[in-house]
Amino acid sequence: MKKFTILFALLGGFAVAAHAQKVETVPQTSADVGLTPIKQGNWMVGGSIGNIGYSFEGKAFNIQLQPRAGYFVSDGIAVGAQATLGLTAVKDMDNEWNYGIAPFVRYYFPGGATSTSRFFAQGDVGIAGSSAGDGVSLALGANVGYAHFITQTVALEAILGYNYTKANVNLGDKATGLGVGIGFQIYLPGQR
Fold first, then answer.
1. Which residues, including other chains, have CB under 8 Å from residue 128's CB and lie 6 or more apart?
2. For 83-105, what is the mean pLDDT?
């Protein structure tokens, strides 16, 4: 009987200790970062996970994945490269895969910024191709966006932009259209 009493006392002690360790947390939805992530010498990696667009010429719908990496050459200005991998659905035609790579320049506006968010503009010039065409051709993009920092180093982004390419031969000699993207960036501190 003595052994059972000691066993129940130990189990009761463990239960009280386990209950005392219970910690409730609320998910973080924003972080006060100021200018820290976009300082000269820092890096950014991430991209648009869902980039949805509509072409004006051929009534085509596309969805793309755009990974990107950049380096802050000065406070608020990043240069880097992005890749494009996507699928285009063309009305009454076969679907096609598209791809591309482009260097970009991104500028974070000081006006309209808060301690947890920033507006930015991004331009890119590169090359693109598709499974329907031969070779690659010019691709241009002009985008504006909003970055909301959920932690000190991670921001969720929404991007709206205009894109142009001559790589999509199923739609004629060119493809222009609007795109909307949602993604994230991770901001890594550089060596100082």
1. 84, 98, 99, 100, 102, 136, 137, 138, 139, 165, 167
2. 86
Residue from 88, 109, 86, 90 nearest 99 by CA: 86
Q: What is the largest CA-CA distance in the chain?
A: 90
Q: How far apart are CA 113 and CA 15, in angstroms?
A: 49
Q: Where are the beta strands (DSSP E) in the chain?
A: 43-55, 60-74, 77-90, 96-108, 117-130, 136-149, 154-165, 175-188
* Rounded Cα distance, 47 and 52, in Å: 13
Q: Take residue 155 and report the two structure tokens written for it.
A: 């921001």
pLDDT tens for each residue of 45-92 = 999 877 776 666 666 777 889 999 999 999 999 999 999 998 877 777
How far apart (Å, rounded) are the C-alpha atoms in residues 147 and 120? Answer: 8
Domains of the chain, each with CATH number or no CATH: 36-188 (2.40.160.20)
pTM for the structure as a whole: 0.77
Closest by alpha carbon to 160, among 136, 183, 137?
A: 183
Tokens of 50: 């869902």
Are 44 and 78 in contact by the 8 Å Cβ rule? The answer is yes
